[in-house]
Amino acid sequence: MASRPRVFITGLGAVTALGLGVASLWDGARKGRSGVRELTLPRTSNQLVKKAAHLPDFDPAIHLPPEMLRTTDRFAQMALMAAREAVADAGWSPSAPMGDRTAVLVGSGIGGATTSDIEHFKFYQSRERTDPMTIPKVMPNAAASQLSMAFGARGMSLAVSSACSSASQAIGLGLMLLRQGLADRALVGGSECLITPATFRAWETLRVMTLGECRPFSKGRDGMTLGEGAAMLLLETEHAARTRGARLHAELAGFGTTSDAGDIVRPDATGAAAAMAAALADAGLDTRDIGYVNAHGTGTILNDRSESEALRQVFGASLDSLAVSSTKPVHGHTLGAAGALELVITVRALQDGVAPPTINWLEADRDCLPDPVPNVARTVAMTAAMSNSFAFGGINASLIVCKA
What we know:
This protein is of the alpha/beta class. The protein has helices at residues 22-31, 66-69, 74-89, 113-126, 134-138, 142-151, 166-179, 197-206, 238-243, 269-283, 301-315, 328-331, 338-352, and strands at residues 7-16, 19-20, 37-38, 51-52, 102-107, 157-160, 185-192, 229-237, 250-259, 292-294, 323-325, 354-355, 378-379, 384-391, 395-403. It folds into two domains: 7-243, Thiolase/Chalcone synthase (Peroxisomal Thiolase, Chain A, domain 1, 3-Layer(aba) Sandwich), CATH 3.40.47; 253-403, Thiolase/Chalcone synthase (Peroxisomal Thiolase, Chain A, domain 1, 3-Layer(aba) Sandwich), CATH 3.40.47. Strands 1, 2, 5, 6, 7, 8, 9, 10, 11, 14 and 15 form an eleven-stranded mixed β-sheet that branches. A two-stranded antiparallel sheet has the order 3-4. Strands 12-13 form a two-stranded antiparallel sheet. The longest helix is centred in the first third of the chain and has 16 residues, at 74-89.
């Protein structure tokens, strides 16, 4: 059997609460500088949670042409901005169509939430005219389709919606496409913009959001902080990348995904552990090869306990000396985009040999990791790193990157 082609990450792009660009995201993650800020939602008077990791000054009109604004929701606009950076970072000419051998896969848990919220309010309350572009804006495949058109990518165009594992699965599926020879490159990632009054209220009602600070793996943790943003990566087969002389950020070496087939909201450590083990096997690596893990680490009671148990199942006693941290207190929990944002951070951690900190950590919880790189970044020698995403519905996904 012929060996499968190696796949490399050649471009990175991000839009987060820390600002436009990967540099802002990595600087915030590395230094523990949070993008969480005060939030006042429109059209509501019963807002309970007063903070989120959002971009109040993001103005798409500065960056995108008017004809594109008319047909895009905020989540697609952020995906376009992140993709622009990733494509430019990869050294791809902006005037050159990416062609038939380029796929686009974008994860999103909700899709066009901003447009949906505005148009439902107009229908039920204000009776204003409905935007005729509502459907093209809200459909979950809107970001993938807009990216395909923007970059002339005529290969597979796919929207992946699997809650908080959406982006990680989109990236993993892109890896599989390239390995199978179905594409030479893939623009992959995720985007989520759901900080709207109705959606925010729904999350408040679930009672999984903190009223204070998000504290993954810490004693005293009481919930997550919602965020918005997008991250995109350009994947290329080794042959395609080297043929055009592309810079290689890292090798995307492993992908594992599982379903708990259990509770719709309660996590299962066994399923999460199986996804990590599958990613290691796919990469042909041992647990001793992993130098850093960017954990899903939401800051909720159940997730952090379950993920800690899953990590222990996979890494055993070596977990005590492994650098594991959560960056969600920095960029917020961006749900369907989380896996992409966190993989970008993981790639930068691998490149710089630095494990970013878990900020807001107070003290160890006996049910969690004893040392999740608390509050201060740590220099770590590493050749491979893992990024985890675990979602409602029991959908687990793990990705592994290695030094190029």
